[in-house]
Amino acid sequence: MQIAIDGPAGAGKSTIAKLVAKRYKITYLDTGAMYRAITWLIDHLQIDFKATEEIIEQTKNAEITFQDDRVFLNGQDVSKEIRMPKISEHTSDIAKIKEVREILVDRQRKIAVQDSVIMDGRDIASVVLPDADYKFYLDASVEERGRRRYEELLEKGDPSKSYEVVCQDIQQRDYYDRHRKESPLICTKDAMIIDTTGLNISEVCEAIYSKIDEDKNDRSLLKRQN
Question: Is residue 58, in this structure, part of any structural domain at all?
Fold first, then answer.
């Protein structure tokens, strides 16, 4: 089984994807974390974000693995580091590089061939898993997504940005994601759209569970009839 979840920053993709993965006992692959890991690596090595060739080479040699909701880069746990504001600001610089996307997408597809997976990102349904069994597009207003991100920063003890600045960052990220040349953020025609504005986590999950379980029941009934 392959499940694709797409949507803009702060729509709740990762949180929901993890819960869906547990529900159906399948592998959760945070594709966004892979781009964040490369971004952290480039920043850590003090490589200019415009040095495309160096970034591509580093990506080729980087080993990114997941274990118990933690992200490892070349054996080092970078789960916290990749969520820092500076990394969020530059992830789009990495994600827009065609060769970097090709390398990481290839790795993501290989994992999907081996296991039942759920992936979340910007181009899962459109590029990474175009033949996914289930496709969902999570969205929310800029204000709602800004509030979520702002509260996350406060919980982490980082009051460096105001709510207004966080919203501006999200709007800028949205623009980059939707207008980048390589694999822009889009909602595919066959995806189920869920506006998470005003919904809690359980309500969003239930919408996804209902769709998957209903489909499974229909397939089971059809199989018995045949």
Answer: yes
Q: How many domains, the chain?
A: 1
**pTM for this entry:** 0.82
* SS3 label, residue 180: coil
Within-domain flag for 218: no
Which phi and psi angles does 185 have, rounded to 5°? -70, 120
- Using one digit for the tens of pLDDT, what is the confidence trace for 93-122? 998 899 999 999 999 999 898 889 999 998
Q: In what order do the strands lie in the sheet with 27-30?
A: 27-30, 117-121, 2-6, 134-139, 192-195
- For CA atoms 165, 91, 68, 131, the dihedral sign is positive
- Decide: 80 and 86 in contact? Cβ < 8 Å: no
CATH number at residue 59: 3.40.50.300
Report yes or no: 40 and 82 within 8 Å, Cβ to Cβ: yes
Fill in the amino acid letter for 98: K
Q: Tell me if 215 is assigned to some domain.
A: no
What SS3 class is residue 100? Answer: helix
pLDDT tens per residue across span 142-198: 999 999 999 988 988 888 889 999 999 999 989 988 998 888 899 999 999 999 999
- The token pair at 201 is 């986590």
Domain coverage including residue 19: 2-209
